[in-house]
Amino acid sequence: MEFQISHLLWLVFSLLLGVGYAFFLYAPANRATGIPHRLLFVLRLFSVAAISFLLFAPEIRSVEKTLEKPLIILAQDNSASLTLGPADKTERVRYRASVKRLYEELAKKYQVDTLLLGDSVRAGLRVDMQDRSTDISSLFQSVRSLYAGRNVGAIILASDGLYNRGGDPLSEALSLKAPVYSIALGDTNARKDLRISNVNYNELIQAGNDFEINLQVEAYQSKGHQSRLSVYREREVVFSRVLSVNSDNFHQNLSVVLPAQRAGTTRYTVRLDTLPDEVSVENNISDFYIQARDVKKGVLIIADAPHPDIGAIRQSLGMAGDYEVSLAYVQDLKAAEIAKADLLILYQLPSLRERLHTFMGMIKAKPILYVLGAQSDLPAFSSMQSLLDLRAAAVPLEASAVINSSFGAFAVPDSLNYAIGGYGPLLVPFSDVHYKGNHDDFLHQQVGKFNTGRPLFSFSPDSEPRFAVFGAEGIWRWRLQAYLASGNHNLIDELLRKAMQYLVADTDKRRFRVYSSQQLYTTSEPVIINAELYNEALELVNKPDVSLTLLGASNRIFSYQLSRTDNSYTLNVGVLPAGEYTYTASTKLGSVTHKAGGKLLVRANQLEFQEVKANHHLFHQLAMQSGGELFYPHQLAEMARAIDKNEMVKTVSYEDATVNDLINVKWLLGLICGLIFCEWFLRKRGGEL
Length: 689
What we know:
Layout: H1 5-25, H2 37-55, E1 59-68, E2 71-77, H3 89-107, E3 111-117, E4 121-123, H4 136-146, E5 152-159, H5 169-174, E6 180-184, E7 193-200, E8 204-206, E9 211-220, E10 226-233, E11 236-244, E12 249-258, E13 264-272, E14 285-293, E15 297-303, H6 308-320, E16 323-329, H7 335-340, E17 343-347, H8 360-364, E18 368-371, H9 378-384, E19 388-403, H10 414-419, E20 426-435, E21 440-447, E22 450-460, E23 467-470, H11 475-486, H12 490-504, E24 512-516, E25 520-522, E26 527-534, E27 540-541, E28 547-551, E29 557-561, E30 563-565, E31 568-574, E32 579-589, E33 592-603, H13 607-610, H14 617-626, E34 630-631, H15 636-645, E35 652-661, H16 666-685
Parallel strand pairs: 2-3, 2-5, 5-6, 6-34, 8-14, 15-16, 15-17, 17-18, 18-23, 25-33
Antiparallel strand pairs: 1-35, 3-4, 7-9, 9-12, 10-11, 10-13, 13-14, 19-20, 19-21, 21-22, 22-23, 24-26, 26-27, 26-31, 28-29, 28-32, 30-31, 32-33
């Protein structure tokens, strides 16, 4: 209890009150001499003084001190890439014993939690090296969320440093403010390996035309060897070439022209013959699907003036061979050009000097992509469409792009998700936006690292025909930056082609539709199959049951019942073994039976076998910048001593101060009652009561 002047004065008053009360009761002239008056006097004095003092309700402050030991996170890589090393079974047993001793040594002084890293981050330390991908950055993200507010002393990461998913582990690790101690596993020596590192292709081609794919082949420690590169269409060889490896660090880019195919979806396989003693053969094969369409779509770009964006859009769409792209300036525009086009791109139209009144009726009857810019007349634009109402900014704003994770109209490569935030900035001509109807935002504006949520690339899902708005100028910059980063424009080209494909897609009049969320899966991805059923009024219904059979490569048949979701159906089949699958669904609406189907490909997840050389450089960076150290498997005894000496790994003391009224202390009540009882007992015994 912290005494103040007021407390002291009240204590003196309470003692005086107790003395007065006791003197009044036990004055010598009023009591018999046989009773121990002095003792009774003292008992009454203190009981009255205590009661009087507690009436003032002074507060008592208590401090509870707790000590929290440092928490050591021991994370073990469980990915399949660790099996590529030269270590034999004895070495692995020895390593596991060393890790166990390290755990036991650290547990004597610290709290130690164990995690497994691979396809996911989970608790435990049972290693089987079966995970098919690695995301090291997710480890540090999980530590930050799972142990928020805890005294994380150090993180021990046992891995080969190879990751094939997620972002940069270094920035995530440094955000934790905890030293990272690395156990460097795997082999940094180059070993014999031949692989297909990349296949670039257009998913959509024109039926009846030859088409081109680009292959990147790499070989290490294989100088003097030869391998045959073959491309299969289904089971037919459509291309073959012998590759001669002339160096131990061999790289070759190949452009392969493949023969035309009929309309439809066809599976292609690229295969390299394996070499003797090759460390990994899983990366010698790659599968993909090509969809051929019968008719090219006509795209007409209408502009008020030249702009670099126009050339960039024409090049992106023209590269696919699926579109015939033409350009018309509004001053020379003819009605026949609009009538011929399947899709219109209005570049910064309506503009400040041209409203398009003459052709407005014809234009609105076509799918449209509006591209906005500094010359756009935003009030006129807002009045001519049913998606956005925009207010012009005083000066164009700079913004980069971020993909809306909930957008599902079409899929884009994961590589675009990672790359697009680094493109830009674009110039956005509006500062205020209101939605006038249903919208489906593909891209949002990002300023710095902040996602503003304002639309950058939006689609109107309910319009017939469809239209979209790209709310900025500067697409040409994106193409240049994509080329600087990867040596090609493929990411931006694919973004634009997918958007155009969605806008010009023919309305599907089928009453029953069944489709997989994607045509190509890996063995670590769940297979999702969706279905839609329409009544005669073309309204979505999902009252009838929908059954589905799945036929695998081994001719095994699996039967399922689709689940209802909103007005449609869905089925999560889960992960499937590698192979090609055919699915057929059926249902009955009224007296009519409907059937539909498709096919999909599940291939082995090869991410862990693409790179076979361990990356210990990452561990050096983590150790140097986080305050940790790098150790090899035979040095684990030294790691425990190094952690003990690190001043960042220390016990944290917490103080918990509480303040309570003194009157709430229960033992004081017992004390006062005891004083009163003793006084009563002595007086009773002396015959005064």
